[in-house]
Specification:
Layout (H helix, E strand, L loop, with lengths): L2 H17 L3 H5 L2 E8 L6 E2 H10 L6 E13 L3 E12 L5 E14 L5 E10 L4
Length: about 130
Amino acid sequence: MTIEDELRAFNASFHAALADHDVEGVVDHFAREGRLIAPGRPPVTGHDELRAFFQEDPDDPVQIKSYTIHEILQGGSLVEIGSEVFSNRLADGSTSDFPMSYVGVYRRGEDGRLSLLLDCVSPDNPD
């Protein structure tokens, strides 16, 4: 399996956990000391803070409409730069799309599994 294939599998699993509101599944994708930097929010660090962050709005359905890896940088850590479009269902039943860019920093654990050290997302259209 190539590193790109491995990242695509990791992200498919991560996005499925988000869509299913599987908080433990989402948190399990992060390293113990993993950090999330999301727009308009203070950074959250560690499994307890990540769990609280992802439990805040369990009724907000999130789907990933598209996902593109733009660049993969390897060294001591693996860095992924990409973009994605989130689609949220609104109270009136319509959907709203949110294009985002992201940087993910991963490390491989002793078990060989990738985990997120940092997930930093930013809206492409901050207006």
